Structures
1.
Amino acid sequence: MTRPTGRLAVKLHRRVCVLMTDTAVTAEEVLARPRLAADIVGRLSPTVLLVRPGRWEAVVAELRKLGHAPRIISSGPPRPQG
Amino acid sequence: MIEAPLGHPVSWFDESTAWSGYCQQVWARYSDPVLRALVGRLTGRQMRQDRTALLQAIAAAQTNPPLIDRCLRKVQPETILLLTWMARSRQPLWDCQLLLSVLAALGVSDGGWTIQEALEHGLIFPSWTQAADEPALTNPSVSNDTGRDGPVRDAAAAAWNGNRGNDSGLGGLAATETTPWLDVVSGIVRTVGLHPAVGERLRQQRLPLPCLSGLQTEPPNFFRSDGWDWPLRLAALWQRLRHQPIRLTQEGEFYKKDSQRLLADPLFSEGWQQGEGPVDGALLAVEAAWAAGLLHRDNDHLQAGRFPAYWRAGLPRLLVELFPRLMQVQKWDPLSGRRSSACAEPSMTASAGWLAMHLLAAAPSDAWIELTDLAAWLWEHHSPWNGLFDPSEMQAGGRNWLLRWFQAVPIPLQFADSWDGRVRLTPLGRWYFTGGSLGELPATQVFPQTLLVQPNAEVIAYRQGLTPSLVADLSAFACWKRIGPACVLELQEQTLCQALEADWSLPQIVQTLQRHASRPVPPTVVDLLERWSSKRQRLTVFPAAVVVEFACAADLETALAEGWIHWRLGERFGLTADGSEPDLRHFRLLANRDYETPPQACLQVGADGLTLEVDPISADLFVDLEVQRLAEPLPPAAPDGPRRYRLSAERLRRAAETQTLEALDAWLTVRSGVPLPPAARLLLLGPHWPAPRTQRLLVLRLANAEAADGLLQWPPTRSLIAERLGPTALAIAPEHLPALRAALAQIGITLIEDPPHQDQTP
């Protein structure tokens, strides 16, 4: 990609499942779990993991089993709020 | 149960404009001749404008009292009775079977014709609900949409003609033409509706019901509910289903596992103000919550939706919204509990209940009506109901049925008082059935401090200070443990996380507790909430984010500084705050890639078979991560050149430990269009092949291929040839050279030999 003049040239990666962790150690913890690691494609940075397409619900379920409480940020329709 | 039309008003108290909008959508489905005929009857004018103008004219007419009054004067008294019933019940949407049943009890023998007349005059409308477009929750027999069901319509039309003669003008109708009353008769549309504005014109009409007499006294010990029994249980049920939705069979029934789970939950069977709760109270609660709009159906699952807006008003408003919804529940009987879809007369409970309430409304306001008197009237006039009991036990059975029904619906909803086997309407019930306005609803006393938060994270909620809004809020973040005079909730990590996921923040939750607590919230509880909440900050999942890839790190820095991007993901990648698409006014889009689609080829294999070059335009986020399992990064060939990798023996072999050669081949074929090149195979498989070895041989070059063939075939020379190297080249061992020379000499061939040379290899 070349440096543009004016607007910034970008490439958009749509519908990517991203798992962000607070620290690199937490990311290591996640990757150390074989059932989670199988659904992680790789690390975009020390604290950002890419999840296989279509596997985010399984990853969240597994994280909850391990006692985590992942925050889910979706730009889709709202969830029941009460 | 009436299935709410999706996204449309359902309540008598919804805005009139909302009802007009919905009615227009319904009429837009009418065929042109039917629509024009309807306009003519409703407005008294023959309009020649287009359909949009016709629809607007009908909508305007429905909210025009003089026009409605003129139209009402043209219809039969039975139709007026039908409309009066709907209006005085303050229930806009009605199941047709239920209406027919009620009309029969009121002495109208041909209810179908009455519904037809009301439909043809535009005074009521067919309601195409969720059931018409999707599998029904309650009635699987409902077919699809608006009348594409030709055989059903034909049969219905034939039956209708048979019953009514041909005066209804059916002869000219095609089977596929949308005819509202025919859709109703054939069962394609099960629900009809009355615009509340039309109903308001009939508020003063009376129903042909007797004025039952009863003891007129004011006993000191009669029972009146505080009205919280149902709202609390509906909120608790919402919470249970938010945690674990209910699965439905194809027939819309519950699975045994879900039924047992709900029936075993003491929240729905214990703690009712009158002592005993309804039979199968949990299952009735599901039906009621569905009717109240707290649940929604997602394929074969019934799950928690959002609390409707009327939960943010006061308790009386909530009760008058819940009452007609609970009254419409059909698959439940006060004595036997939940009934299946297949039972006969599914609307019997609802029709008997509505009739009983209207009988109370017709009685003097201070008269306590004996349940046996109500039962006797129903026995005489409501044939589906009296089929429930043996004639010998009519009196006791009917009275018991009514007692259990009153204890399940009107009394907990504060619509009826009870005293010594007698009932009467409460002021709220009388307000409802006499057509009071929302402004006349009784005001409720407010006790804002009604919670007690205990150090063990339990929350005691005193009923007298609750509001529907507070109940909805508590249901979002605390688990209902017990419902009684003082209700018990528990703050749990799971419910807190669910609240945070539903856009609650921790300060909001703590403030809600502090605002309504009679004593300060214990610091240990606040600490606990903070600890649970902080766990949630450790991991964030964006299920379907739009990752923005910049050309260089400097561009990413610019976007972050300008606030166009919120999150930094590595050196060149960023994300908006909620993972949605960035504002493209700031960016020039070079390419985009959808990760729900299969991966694309974006690698080019070099001539050496080892170098892989990434196409920056078609590459996705995964390709660099994937390729690094097999190859090591190389510096780009030019400063702005594409990223390059070289397949290395070490990485290839490490990858082969977890993947087969076929999988590696398949991956590279998808990503580059070619399988692993031979050079890469050599790196990967070389160590597994037999060791190569050197050998000293002489090359015998022949004039042509025939000569080579001959030497290979002729027995004296055949055994001397070690290998054929090519069409005209053969290899022989040095020690066979004299024998070959001699054999060739026998047949007159002279072998020319190179002069011996010095071997330079060690």
2.
Amino acid sequence: MTDTLTAPTATRGLVEITGVRKSFGPTEVLKGVSLTVEPGGVAVIVGPSGSGKSTLLRTINHLEKVDGGHITIDGQLVGYKLRGDRLHELREKEILKQRTDIGMVFQNFNLFPHLTALENVAEAPVVAQGRSKEDARRRGLELLDRVGLKDRAGAYPRQLSGGQQQRVAIARALALDPKILLFDEPTSALDPELVNEVLDVIRELATSGTTLIIVTHEMGFARDVADTVVFMDQGQIVEQGTPKEIFSNPQEPRTRSFFSKVLEPAFNI
Amino acid sequence: MSSATGVAQSQQSQPVPAAEAPPAGTGTSGAGGSATEVAPRVAKDYSSYRVVAAKHPWRWVGTAVVALGVLAVAWSLATNPRWEWGVVAQWFTAQSVVNGLVETLKLTAISGVLGFVLGFILALMRLSASPLLVSVSWTFSWIFRSTPLLVQMLLWYNLGYLYEKISLGIPFTDVRFFEVQTTTLISQFAAAVLGLTLNQAAYSAEIIRGGILSVDQGQLEAAAALGIPAWRRSTRIVLPQAMRAILPTAFNEIIGLVKGTSIVYVLAYSELFYTVQVIYNRTQQVLPLLLVATLWYIVITSVLSVFQYYIERHYSKGAVRNLPLTPLQKARKFFATHAAVPNRRNS
């Protein structure tokens, strides 16, 4: 049971996003986005702020309800159930169950400040998956060890550095054995020198068979780790392809102008 | 004394009072140009000097004036015979006073607990997505915060005048499961509890709502993303964090409630304040008996304050890097540091 995480199981975690629309008030932030991420694949979404990257990520685990289109994971609709010819919105309980398959790591970590690192990691497996406390604790320590923080298990988030907090948050997301992990700008709130310790953990995950969808501004990291790079602008996917295609030879003028601003001159494939 | 540090400084050890050689090329006054000419600076070694703390003469004057004032008040309290401390001592632990005290504590505990439970429900209603629940909760707080507690109290006690009987049944039909005379149901005690509870609920609802709102939205999102069920989300994630904002004001309310129970005297309910009134109406020792009640209220408040301190400390776990010291630990530290030689050396 525990080794489902480490063994590459590239048979689960297929994400299919089809024509997703979403508005906040009068602003349409997603204008019909379609994207497929293969099981075990690593998709990195880049683009200017306000392009809808984070919103797209949040629709995948139904933190944002879509206004149109749909998302499936391994063929199963997210947030809805097809009954007859109607889509019924799932009840809270069912949505929560779906979410245990989808881990999420936030820009601001969102660790629970009143719980220790270990308690943060071991909370969800007990209440959302009904594991025993002892089991969750043991597994929590394993995961903290995996992100290099076993010796800080008893520390409260505020006693940890930003990079350490984010690594705890990753361990917390892994504790549910998710098929898919969503990263919402996981290094944006970190000091430059702390970025790499977090990226190293994500790099290691990229080879583990879990599907990763990552929103980031770290272009070098995107180039290293991604199977697919997706460039979004103004609520639409402008271009997608392998890192080589997107970074070295972008086809769309919008993509080119974006990269000319964010990539330093020395950045080459 | 200075030898050890002198060695540490070593290399270019000029004797301590290194005269600051003014930079050579002052005429040019431009920056970088003469950088090579500047003689290597020798950092002055201060480690062998004694540190003298800054003097605060006015602080001492202020302290003396206030101390004098405190002394004067204490002196007058102790020596003015009209305080009648003997009478105070005589009544302080009298059976009737203690009985009144117990009633006061009972009222406080019951209406405090019920008030906060109801307040919690009202706060959740106010935060719900249903417009009806929101407006009912809002109206409740509006009404009970706008009417004087005294009026509420009298109203509940005289409910029997408005509604002779209270019955439980199916509305708009003649089916009645249960019917009772209002006056037998609403005793003085019931009216007191009802009035205090409902009033307390209106205030605590706002306090709890404020606390819940103070918790970062990201916490709820993270909990939802982890599949943690709604009830658990509130009790395990949001409330413990909200408590930090809730507790100081909540204790304010509880302390207010302790003294607020004295208003129940209008119902001739024999809590502490009413009991004392009855006694001084008989003995005419008004001030000493008011003092008896006051001292008891002070005692209750003090005990509550101690609870408050430790409960707040408990909930600050994780919110501060290191927990603040308890008064006991502080005292120990104070004596540990101040018992040592007062003139601190920089060593």
